[in-house]
Amino acid sequence: MEYILHLAIVVTIFSILAMSLNYVAGYTGILSLSHATFYGIGAYATAILTTQHGFSFVPSVMVGMVLAAVIAYLASFPILKLKEDSLVLVSFGFSIIMFNVMLNWTDLTKGPLGIKGIAAPEIFGLSFFSKPLFFALVFLTAIVTYFFFRRITKSPYGIIIKGIRENRTVTAVNGHNVLRYQRSVFTVGAIFAAIAGSFTATFLAFIEPKLFELMPSVLILIMVILGGMASLKGSVLGAFILILLPEVLRFLGLPPSILAEVQQMIYGLVLILVMYLRPQGLLGEYKI
């Protein structure tokens, strides 16, 4: 039961990440490889504030959300001025810069040693130390995330950002400030990634920079592509499949030394197959 709850928590956290990236990439067409950066900002904000400055969980999450929003908004100016391939490359470069900040700012982040002893969330005196309670909290957050993005994407605002995805020139001609909409979308996506990071920090009770390098950003993007661009349910399905798939490998008796490499090969194979066989993903609205 503990093992199942552990997997359920991980799937739910990555569902939040995938839904927030789908809002950015699937609904608005901003293909970004920097999502794990904002995930890391939320995680480090909670880890540092709760272990070193006496903050409780909720205020630390709020600080992480604000930090992620500010950094995402500032980063959006150089990133979103570019289009498609160039945008992906610049977001990749931004991700590398932020990863190295996490790795080398040792006075703040402890560098490769990581931050240990991160306490479980406590809200209104109720501790979420047990996995059933922690899962309930994360699951509730995922439900709120789903309905938040569902409401936005079905609103007039959502119609405009989909229009940007389909044809930004036509959207601009119709009087909409394309960059302003893109910046707001990029910033909101980062805020929800930071929330997922805060949950990850308290769930693992330990974080290190490697958790937030390029590969997690790629993994989250593959979840979005697999589940379907512009499909929130698809994001959840993609997270479910790609988190559980490596667990199946554990039962095949593969040596631990090659397990990580095999996982990455499978992720790559999944991406290739989806792009060739079903470019819109399993539940997607449009082809990437």
Q: Mind sketching the topology for me?
A:
Blueprint: H1 2-25, H2 35-52, H3 57-79, H4 84-104, H5 106-109, E1 115-116, E2 122-123, E3 126-127, H6 131-153, H7 156-166, H8 168-173, H9 178-204, E4 206-207, H10 214-227, H11 232-250, H12 256-277
Antiparallel strand pairs: 1-4, 2-3
Helix pairs in contact: 1-6, 1-9, 1-10, 1-11, 2-3, 2-4, 2-9, 3-9, 10-11, 10-12
How does this model look, in words?
Helix content is 74%, strand content 3%. The termini are far apart. It is mainly α and 288 residues long. The chain has helices at residues 2-25, 35-52, 57-79, 84-104, 106-109, 131-153, 156-166, 168-173, 178-204, 214-227, 232-250, 256-277, and strands at 115-116, 122-123, 126-127, 206-207. A hairpin with a 2-residue loop joins strand 2 and strand 3. The model has no long low-confidence stretch (mean pLDDT 94). It has one domain (2-213). The strands form 2 sheets. A two-stranded antiparallel sheet has the order 1-4. The protein contains 12 helices and 4 strands.
What descriptive keywords fit this protein?
288 residues, mainly alpha, two-stranded antiparallel ribbon, 4 strands
